[in-house]
Amino acid sequence: VSKSWGARARRQVVRFLRDCTQRGAGMPLKDDFERDGFLLVKGFASRDECKGLQGRMHELIGKWDPDQTLAPVFVTDEKQQLQNQGRSDYFLDSADRIHFFLEKGAAGEDGKLKPSVTKERSLNKVGHGLHVADDAFRSYSHSEKVSSLVEQLGYKDAVVPQSMYIFKQPEIGGEVTSHQDSSFL
């Protein structure tokens, strides 16, 4: 662990590596990932990191003017997905920018938010270029501990193709059907 890193970053990397070592030199992480397709690494993101990213998202939402954007409703149904996202410049342009995507039922037929839905509650997700266009999300996405985990999983020269902040809103939204993001890319 580099001495040039801050004390908190060093502690996090040491804790992460210790946790991996306790699982058997990191191999079970790779085995678990290959078997399940995902990993749950408890404590990977510290409370401070989570609060920082949540706070930053709150700031981004505060600056977003839904009347100027007409953000589309995000769907995963294959037919609607091709119709809504597949041909949408808004969706395609989000690869290296920060774009806001609405929950089903948040907007009226005119595409504007319904008066009964606040912009904070209207969102399904924000994506897909948070790791490119925002310092806080870029810093976390490209942190040493994220890079170390990716390397432990056997990836060499990995890149971040997209990043999303996904909301789970109460009382609004549509079903998210089974899908694999890589098939949309």
UniProtKB/TrEMBL annotation:
How is this protein named in the record? Uncharacterized protein
Looking at the keywords, is Ligase present? no
Q: What cofactor is needed?
A: Fe cation
Source organism = Alexandrium catenella
Q: Keywords on this record?
A: Iron, Metal-binding
> Record's Gene3D superfamilies?
q2cbj1_9rhob like domain
> GO terms for molecular function, please?
metal ion binding
What InterPro entries does the database record attribute to this sequence? Phytyl_CoA_dOase-like
